[in-house]
Design goal:
By secondary structure, the chain is of the alpha+beta class. The strands form two sheets. The protein has a three-stranded antiparallel sheet with strand order 3-4-5, with helices on both faces. Helix 7 runs antiparallel to helix 8. The chain is elongated and about 55 Å long. The two termini are 41 Å apart.
Length: 224
C-alpha cells in the first residue's frame, strides 16, 4: 500500500502484469526456472524467473533498433546460466535480432532447450491446450479460485506427489496475512476508505486464508 495525495487515504498497488506476478508467486522456493512469454502483433517478450525473482527480461519490437550489445550479452549470460547452457553467444545473437519479434521469441525458446512454441501462439488458449502434457491456467473469478483452492480432489489430471513447502513459503504468507487482517479491519472501519478498496483487501486476505488452509490440508493428507 502507498499513500495517496489526500491525507489519510490509502490505495492498493495491483501488479501491472498479472502473469509475471503469478509466476513470481508460484516459483518462490522452487528449484526450477520459469519463462513467461508475451506476444502481440507488434512485439514479443520473455521474462525469466527463479525462486520468485525476475532474473532476465527482453523485448523484441518491430520498430525498435537493435539493443545495446553489453545489455544483450548480460541478459544472454543470465539465461545461459539459468538453463545450464555453456555458450551464451547463440542466445545473444537471437536477442540482438530485429524485424520479426514472434520468430525471434520462438528461436530463443528453442535455443534454451524448451519445447517449441506452437504455431499460432498468442491467440486462443486452445492452441496451448492441444500440447501434450500442457496445463492451461485460465483467468478465474474470486469465488471459482477459492473453490478450486479449497477443493481436495477433482480436476482432469491425476494427483501428483507434492514436495513439502519451504519455510519461506509459509513465512511470507503468514506475515502477509498478519498485515492484511488488521488493514482490512481498519479499511472497513474507516469512513475515509471506499468500499472498493476495502473489498480488495478482504479478497486478498481471503485468498491467503484459502491458500494456507489448502496447504495445511495437503500437509495432513499428502498425495500418494
Amino acid at each position: 500500500m502507498v499513500p495517496e495525495a489526500a491525507h489519510g487515504r490509502r490505495s492498493v498497488l495491483l501488479p501491472e502484469e498479472p502473469l509475471t506476478a503469478a509466476a513470481e508467486n508460484f516459483t518462490t522456493g522452487e528449484s526450477w526456472p520459469a519463462l513467461v512469454l508475451h506476444r502481440t502483433p507488434e512485439h514479443s517478450s520473455v521474462t525469466a524467473l527463479h525462486q520468485g525473482r525476475q532474473l532476465a527480461t527482453h523485448t523484441w519490437d518491430t520498430e525498435s533498433p537493435a539493443p545495446d550489445h553489453a545489455e544483450v550479452r548480460a541478459t544472454a549470460a543470465r539465461l545461459a546460466h539459468l538453463y545450464g547452457l555453456a555458450d551464451p553467444r547463440p542466445l545473444a545473437h537471437i536477442l540482438r535480432s530485429t524485424g520479426a519479434p514472434a520468430r525471434h521469441q520462438s528461436d530463443l525458446v528453442t535455443a534454451l532447450g524448451l519445447p517449441p512454441v506452437p504455431p499460432g501462439f498468442g491467440g486462443d488458449t486452445e492452441i496451448l491446450a492441444s500440447l501434450p502434457g500442457a496445463r492451461v491456467q485460465a483467468r478465474r473469478g474470486l469465488l471459482a479460485g477459492l473453490r478450486d483452492t479449497l477443493s481436495a480432489g477433482g480436476g482432469d489430471h491425476p494427483a501428483e506427489p507434492r514436495a513439502p513447502l519451504p519455510r519461506r513459503w509459509w513465512l511470507i504468507r503468514i506475515l502477509s496475512l498478519l498485515v492484511l487482517a488488521p488493514a482490512t479491519a481498519l479499511a472497513w472501519w474507516s469512513p475515509q476508505v471506499g468500499w472498493l478498496r476495502s473489498s480488495m483487501l478482504s479478497a486478498a486476505a481471503l485468498y491467503l486464508v484459502a491458500e494456507l488452509t489448502a496447504a495445511v490440508r495437503r500437509r495432513g493428507h499428502p498425495a500418494t
